[in-house]
Design goal:
The chain has 318 residues and is mostly helical. Helices cover 66% and strands 2% of the residues. It has a two-stranded antiparallel sheet. It holds the Pfam family PaaA_PaaC.
């Protein structure tokens, strides 16, 4: 006899409570599936759109070594996008459908990628702060309750750690260089600090999804907990670099055992996620163009697959 929805739901709840993984073959509540599709799709889109800010500097890298490193990093981001689209597909959506939603501006990607990259120091600062924030946010996702997402995150986090180190190494070289290079690093840090704090999402009181996502063990910590962890981790790194973080309220709080810090500009955050950040239009237009330019590749792959099927089945392809 087939199990009732109530029985299936009980098994789902027990699996979550026992900290085991939900797999694609398992029954899951529709809202759990929808939440995962939303989060994984946004994450995948972020990786793909996130290639653009740094990609801007590939042709202008200051040396062959820096160019090789940057090329490899941007290529890794494409790979992360692919693992994540593949994880989303296990939930019954199609990558082509998600891409259509992205370029029609119907699905989000991370706010951070709507800021411009104005100097080569931005490549280092993105590695240090943006990949640093990404790691802080994503290491707990390796323990996410949905198996395919958790497993994709393990590999992604290993690569993100390398990305963070390459950024820090570039900044170390620059702060040990000329005065002009040190100024570039400081200027870039001033621009990227607050947008990096916004990557963790709205404050807990304004985060509609956190409570349920924590109950389902998709998210393991709240947005504010992770933001605090990132600040605590980054301040000593800024001191080692000799860079000032642009927050007059930043100070160690002995009682809390954490750094106190100022409030990001949440109006700016809302504007950026609703489409009016400095580069939203440019990022989407570029992605749309790349998608259109790739149409012939998709068509050729489809024709080839049809030919192979026809050969196997003895039928002639139309
Ligand atoms: N940007 O209720 P919550 C990377 C949206 S790292 C845009 O708190 P949730 C690596 C949120 O989607 C960047 N939108 O939502 C890399 C929701 O909107 P919706 C990507 C944001 O999901 C480095 C609404 O606000 N990382 O790519 C943002 O519980 C360098 C309410 O928010 C991930 O995606 C934002 N910053 O928590 C690549 C990690 N924050 O859908 C290249 C996985 C919030 O209801 C170069 N995602 N929103 O319309 C997560 O951990 C979560 O989804 C959060 C948001 C924490 C981002």
């Amino acid at each position: 006899m087939a199990a009732t929805e109530q029985e299936l739901s009980a098994v789902f709840e027990q699996t979550i409570a026992a900290d085991q993984r939900i797999e694609p073959r398992d029954w899951m509540p529709e809202a759990y599936r929808r939440t995962l599709i939303r989060q994984i799709a946004q994450h995948a889109h972020s990786e793909i759109i996130g290639m653009q800010p740094e990609g801007n500097w590939i042709l202008r890298a200051p040396s062959l070594r820096r160019k090789a490193i940057l090329l490899a990093k941007v290529q890794d981001e494409a790979g992360h996008g692919m693992y994540l689209y593949a994880a989303a597909e296990t939930l019954g959506v199609d990558r082509a459908e998600l891409t259509e939603k992205l370029i029609a501006n119907k699905q989000k990607y991370s706010s951070i990628f709507n800021y411009p990259t104005l100097s080569y120091a931005d490549v280092g600062v993105i590695g240090w702060l943006v990949d640093g924030a990404a790691i802080c946010n994503q290491v707990p996702l390796c323990r996410c309750s949905y198996g395919p997402y958790a497993r994709a995150m393990i590999r992604i986090c290993k690569e993100e750690s390398f990305h963070q180190r390459q950024g820090y190494e570039l900044l170390l070289a620059m702060v040990n260089g000329t005065e002009a290079q040190r100024e570039m690093v400081q200027e870039s840090t001033n621009r990227f600090w607050w947008p990096s704090l916004m990557m963790f999402g709205p404050p807990d009181g304004d985060s509609p999804n956190t409570r349920q996502s924590m109950a389902w063990r998709i998210k393991r910590h709240t947005n504010d907990e992770l933001r605090q962890r990132f600040v605590d981790m980054t301040v000593p790194q800024s001191e080692a670099l000799g860079v000032t973080l642009p927050d007059p309220d930043l100070r160690w709080n002995e009682e809390r055992g954490h750094y106190d810090f100022g409030e990001p500009d949440w109006d700016e955050f809302k504007a950026v996620i609703s489409g009016s950040g400095p580069c939203n239009a440019q990022r989407l237009a570029h992605r749309r163009r790349a998608h259109e330019n790739g149409a012939w590749v998709r068509e050729a792959a489809r024709a080839y697959a049809e030919k192979q099927t026809a050969k196997r089945t003895g039928r002639v392809a139309a």
